[in-house]
């Protein structure tokens, strides 16, 4: 009867605050026991003690869309931080930015619905949290130590909804609109997040930044346009300046990277994901900024089922010289390395390329790419146990492995690759400055790059 006790306790807590509600507190689901499986980062997640039963804050619901829940949410976190539990079991509309990076030893239960107010996209353009990194912005950020965020996917709620539709429509006419990401985990050390639905981010779904020991599991992500307007970006997760991250057992329907490893992502495991419509599980893009060192190493990507994507396993690095790729997307000449990355067990269905490795990102002219080779090296890469069939788009080509000079790439291996092409022809791959003896595939000379995505 632990939950009865916590309800009684919750009623005691609620009696002296406006932030929380007294009517019908719901049963709190138990914190799920999630473990990294089958792979892990080599370091166990820090121990997370059970929360105090006497400290449960039920956040007061929004009366209507105009009733901003943010002040009540902040008050609840201040009250139940350091050992308590926050419960979102009703419907909440958030209409102002929320900085929740001061947390410690707290559980956050989301069995209700969290919506971000979409009545004025320019309010968020002006008031979202801004990041220098890729000019990003976000509605709210969560950080601190020993945090568990969880919902219950057996109910039809447990929802975080960014209402991206209006932003996707607005950028058709104003590309400069800053569209918030749905969630930033920023400066989180020892955090789990599981069993939550995330819907329709104006920009990316999630960034995991400045963080260590993060485990994400059993998530359900979907970006869906109501009227055919293009869904811009919608990356599932981007990792940045973070170490020891596991993302597993989740389903992602989107239109950009399913998972993307941005600068300084190390010791990351991605496993048992189903991705549909994406741009792949992508390292990069890296090397965009002169004199900046980007490091991505020790990644294990296991058991991915990917459909309807532009790319599957992907590593993208800018060349050594400045490149004018697209409006708001220029760069090249950065330093660093991508090292010790394994993609193991990867099912392909209707993806344009099974494998994409490029050190000419943004530079479709191969001559120019090779003239100024990348300063960011790619080494110790293994891709193994890939099967399924790519799309007809590039048939009989099934992928591309293009380095800008042979001393900038090393030990790139492909093993047990049985991906087919729809025509039934023998699949071919573009290869340049890679050691063909380690590939066991049919290589052809690359043509100029046919990459027209609105990439990042
Ligand atoms: C960031 O925004 C500024 C001003 O709009 C622009 O000049 C710059 O290219 C942008 N940078 C990136 C990485 O998008
Ligand atoms: C990461 O931490 C730095 C400070 O060390 C901060 O400036 C930045 O906003 C944080 N988040 C991101 C996404 O860069
Ligand atoms: C990444 O790490 C390198 C080496 O420590 C450092 O020079 C660089 O500034 C870091 N980059 C970011 C974006 O933090
Ligand atoms: C691979 O992931 C799928 C879920 O997409 C899961 O059903 C299956 O058990 C996993 N296989 C292994 C070997 O872990
Ligand atoms: C990069 O560093 C070099 C050497 O310190 C310096 O001369 C150059 O101005 C820097 N370039 C940029 C774009 O910061
Ligand atoms: C390479 O990465 C794997 C995780 O994918 C890790 O277990 C291994 O220790 C790393 N190897 C080196 C030499 O760092
Ligand atoms: C891929 O796209 C097709 C057509 O758009 C769709 O029917 C299918 O459900 C998608 N996903 C999979 C797994 O095939
Ligand atoms: C690529 O660049 C080279 C060197 O500047 C130039 O001669 C060639 O015409 C370019 N190719 C295309 C297709 O633009
Ligand atoms: C980066 O690469 C360019 C062209 O390949 C080269 O001219 C330059 O010296 C390199 N810079 C560094 C710091 O290695
Ligand atoms: C090759 O990959 C397939 C999946 O496509 C897997 O079932 C098989 O066990 C692998 N073979 C070896 C020898 O690892
Ligand atoms: C190369 O791949 C073929 C099938 O695609 C396989 O039969 C052969 O054993 C592989 N060779 C090596 C050296 O791995």
TrEMBL record:
Family matches, as SMART domains: PbH1
GO biological process: cell wall organization; pectin catabolic process
Signal sequence coordinates: 1-22
InterPro entries: Glyco_hydro_28 (IPR000743), PbH1 (IPR006626), Pectin_lyas_fold (IPR012334), Pectin_lyase_fold/virulence (IPR011050)
Domain of life: Eukaryota
GO cellular component: extracellular region
Molecular-function GO term, any one: galacturan 1,4-alpha-galacturonidase activity
Pfam families in UniProt: Glyco_hydro_28
Keyword Hydrolase on entry: yes
Cellular localisation: Secreted
Database matches in SUPFAM superfamilies: Pectin lyase-like
Record's catalysed reaction(s): [(1->4)-alpha-D-galacturonosyl](n) + H2O = alpha-D-galacturonate + [(1->4)-alpha-D-galacturonosyl](n-1)
EC number: 3.2.1.67
Enzyme class label: hydrolase
Primary localization: secreted
Assigned protein family: Belongs to the glycosyl hydrolase 28 family.
PANTHER family: EXOPOLYGALACTURONASE X-1-RELATED (PTHR31736:SF14), PTHR31736
Protein name per the record: galacturonan 1,4-alpha-galacturonidase
Organism placement in taxonomy: Eukaryota, Fungi, Dikarya, Ascomycota, Pezizomycotina
């Amino acid at each position: 009867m632990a939950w009865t006790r916590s309800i009684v306790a919750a009623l005691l807590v609620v009696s002296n605050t406006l932030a929380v509600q007294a009517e019908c507190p719901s049963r709190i689901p138990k914190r799920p026991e999630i473990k990294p499986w089958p792979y892990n980062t080599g370091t166990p997640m820090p121990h997370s003690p059970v929360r105090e039963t006497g400290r449960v804050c039920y956040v007061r619901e929004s009366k209507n869309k105009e009733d901003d829940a943010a002040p009540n949410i902040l008050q609840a976190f201040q009250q139940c931080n350091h050992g308590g539990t926050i419960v979102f079991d009703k419907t909440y509309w958030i209409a102002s930015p929320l900085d929740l990076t001061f947390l410690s030893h707290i559980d956050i239960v989301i069995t209700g619905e969290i919506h971000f107010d979409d009545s004025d996209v320019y309010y968020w353009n002006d008031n979202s949290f801004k990041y220098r990194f890729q000019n990003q912005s976000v509605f709210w950020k969560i950080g601190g130590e020993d945090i568990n965020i969880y919902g219950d996917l057996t109910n039809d709620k447990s929802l975080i909804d960014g209402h991206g539709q209006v932003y996707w429509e607005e950028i058709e006419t104003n590309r400069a609109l800053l569209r918030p990401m749905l969630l930033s985990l920023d400066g989180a050390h020892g955090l789990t997040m599981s069993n939550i639905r995330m819907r329709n981010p104006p920009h990316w779904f999630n960034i995991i930044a400045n963080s260590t020991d993060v485990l994400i599991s059993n998530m359900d992500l979907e970006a869906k346009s109501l009227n055919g307007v293009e869904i811009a970006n919608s990356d599932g997760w981007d990792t940045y300046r973070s170490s020891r991250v596991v993302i597993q057992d989740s389903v992602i329907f989107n239109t950009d990277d399913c998972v993307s490893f941005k600068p300084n992502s190390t010791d990351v495991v991605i496993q048992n994901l189903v991705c549909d419509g994406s741009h792949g599980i992508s390292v990069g893009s890296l090397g965009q900024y002169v004199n900046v060192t980007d490091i991505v190493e020790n990644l294990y990507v296991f058991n991915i089922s990917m459909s309807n994507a532009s790319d599957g396993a992907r590593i993208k690095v800018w060349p050594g010289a400045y490149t004018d790729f697209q409006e708001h997307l220029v760069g090249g000449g950065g330093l660093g390395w991508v090292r010790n990355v394994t993609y193991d067990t990867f099912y392909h269905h209707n993806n344009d390329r099974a494998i994409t490795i490029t050190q000419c990102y943004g530079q479709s002219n191969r001559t120019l790419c090779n003239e100024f080779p990348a300063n960011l090296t790619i080494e110790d890469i293994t891709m193994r146990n890939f099967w399924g069939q790519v799309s007809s788009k590039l048939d009989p080509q099934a992928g591309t492995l293009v380095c800008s000079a042979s001393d900038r790439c090393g030990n790139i291996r492909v093993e047990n690759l049985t991906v087919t092409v729809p025509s039934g022809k023998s699949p071919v791959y573009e290869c340049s400055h890679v050691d063909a003896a380690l590939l066991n595939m049919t290589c052809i000379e690359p043509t100029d790059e046919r990459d027209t995505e609105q990439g990042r």
